[in-house]
Amino acid sequence: MSTSPSTSRGRLLALVVLCAGQLMVILDGTIVNVALPTISGALDFAPANLAWVMNAYLIGFGGLLPLAGRLGDLIGRKQVFVTGLVAFVAASALCAAAVNQVMLIAARFVQGAGGALASAMVLGMLVTLYEQPRERARAIGAFTFVGSGGASIGIIAGGVLTQTVGWHWIFLVNVPIGLAAAVLAARVLPAERGLGLRAGADAAGAVLVTAGLMLGVYTIVRSTEQPWPYTLGTGAAAVVLLAGFVLRQARAATPLLPLRVFAVRSVAGGNATLLLAIAGMFGFQFLIALYLREVLGYDPLHTGLALLPTSLTIAVVSLGVSARLIARFGPVRVLAAGLATIAVGFAILTRLPSQDGYPMLLPALLVLGAGFATAMPALTGLAMSGADPSDSGVVSGLFNTVQQVAGALGLAILSTVAAAHTRQLVAAGAGAAAAQTGGYRVAFVVAGGFVLVALALAVTVLRRTGGAPRPVPVDRAEPVRTGRS
């Protein structure tokens, strides 16, 4: 069965399938977050290395998203989406079977690669399916709602599964969801003819950006434990690799990321704002889960329940409220209000106590959820609004890449800051709970700083875009060349 995307029913069915695939990816993120302290004990992770359970996934996801987007153009988005779902399911099974740190981290990287293949297709297909701004806003709102619903399910499921049957099952739960989504996608998504593999995919560019990101995150995480010459050396190597990626994109015949897309103000400004906002937001649940488990002594189930208000708030606000706000006030004003709300949430978190802290934590979780659900749909629409239809897959892949890269970098920075300050407080004679809480407070100050810079960027760079669709200037596109680049 294949349903035409030109009909309302066909678009709705396609939206359901795309959201189901994204549900699995979002579910994986939050379900793992809750189980991290248990995984740490089971596989004997050092505190500084625990972040790699998340970062291996994020780097595999973000580093390979540009290549995934290009593969969608070459062989068809439907085929790549289904392939990504199947790879994600297989890697999830490997994560569940992990018996040591190396096996789990490697499987998480492969899982991220599968997630990249699937997720890189979603926004581009949504933009193509829903061309009218109002319909597109509703579709993106539904997409955000499903993502927050997956986050809520993951938080509860992570606590229940970890506490009752073990942490391995947080990965096995992806198997039935992924297989069902793959079967439905093969049946209801519209078939697309790609350009063909002969058009070329920049595998060298993918290697450069993935290696550069991984080495950069490694440098940040190990910066407090390695001598400065070593840290400067690995950091410089990461910069060289990422600079090589940029040069490659400028000269390649078939770049993963055509640099012309940055000529559009909404694309460049939207992604820069996204980088800062996600760098601040992503690490907070990681740190709060550790705070609940290690400082307040919550078990996995109660940790999941304690984190649930954020996801529920995101679900409620994103289900129609954010779309109405954007239609009434415009995406830039709504984005600015959302980012300001997030900054207020982080300000509350900087006052967390080392005992009986949930009464103060709860308002912060609600405020952060409301701010995120307000800001993200507006930011998504702005970042995608200038994409020419022929570049929708590239811009979608860029947006997703920036999210994952920002998450990995933000998590690495915030966890490193928290661990370093905690060690300083312990050396000064503070108790374990007070020292850990102090480390988290400093990390939340840094996170709030990221969001405030994002807010400043949004109101200065994006204020002139207004979110109105504007094509990428084709006269500035790089000419297509043949032969080796």
TrEMBL record:
UniProt lineage: Bacteria, Bacillati, Actinomycetota, Actinomycetes, Micromonosporales
Do the record's keywords include Transmembrane?
A: yes
This protein is called: MFS transporter
Record-linked InterPro entries: MFS, MFS_dom, MFS_trans_sf
**Which one of the record's GO molecular function terms can you name?**
transmembrane transporter activity
Q: Does the keyword Membrane apply?
A: yes
Q: Name one Pfam family in it.
A: MFS_1
Q: Which GO terms describe its cellular component?
A: plasma membrane
Record's subcellular location: Cell membrane
**Membrane topology category:** Multi-pass membrane protein
Top-level taxon of the source organism: Bacteria
Q: Which UniProt keywords apply?
A: Cell membrane, Membrane, Transmembrane, Transmembrane helix, Transport
Transmembrane regions: 12-36, 48-68, 80-99, 105-127, 139-161, 167-189, 201-221, 227-247, 268-292, 304-327, 334-354, 360-384, 405-422, 442-462
Q: Where would one find coiled-coil regions in this protein?
A: none
Q: Which organism is it from?
A: Actinocatenispora sera
**The Major facilitator superfamily (MFS) profile domain, residue ranges:** 14-466
